[in-house]
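Running this now, will post back.
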Amino acid sequence: MSGEAEALREPWASLRRQREAASFGMWLFLGSEALLFGGLILAFSVNRLLHPDAFAGAGHETNVVYGTVNTVVLLTSSLAMAVGAEAARAGLRELALLGLSLTLALAVAFLVIKGFEWSADIDEGLFPGQAFKLAPPAAGIFFAFYWFMTGLHGLHVTAGISVIAWITWQAWRGERPLESPAFEAAALYWHLVDIVWVFLYPLLYLGGRS
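Update: finished.
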């Protein structure tokens, strides 16, 4: 049985139609995710306009080194994911597995770095609450957004790791043919994770340093 025949699932009559359906479904899901993060970014921007000085001061307290390193890590993972997905579509098994594995390694590195950053933030009193070190009340609003948006993004990274790890494991064992639309769908999701971070990085790390 050919790889295309193994990848084909009911009720689709052709792999092309199955791939188009998977892509369309993923784009609908990504649209809902974009609305979620878009609403958060809009709310953040409105509060920043209302409290420019407090938000600038709070933004200066974020660790731009951690943020910049993680930006490089995540953008590199997006490149690796694109290579892995395209290699899978072209039937290049070793290159596909390499790209997917590198994506996983960089995604885990992103979470580890983020963990160190969060730990340092807590030690420095940057978690809203009784131990919060910044005086302006609006600074607490900034860090409420900071923790919620980076935490939500971290959950999306974790979900992406789970999905990519699963399809990579299946591909390595030969249980999922490289022609499967799952690789392209996973790549679309991972690119959304990267794009969201591209917006969060300047909002949270560069706003207080402009």
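The domain at 10-209 is CATH 1.20.120.80 (Four Helix Bundle (Hemerythrin (Met), subunit A)). More later if anyone needs it.
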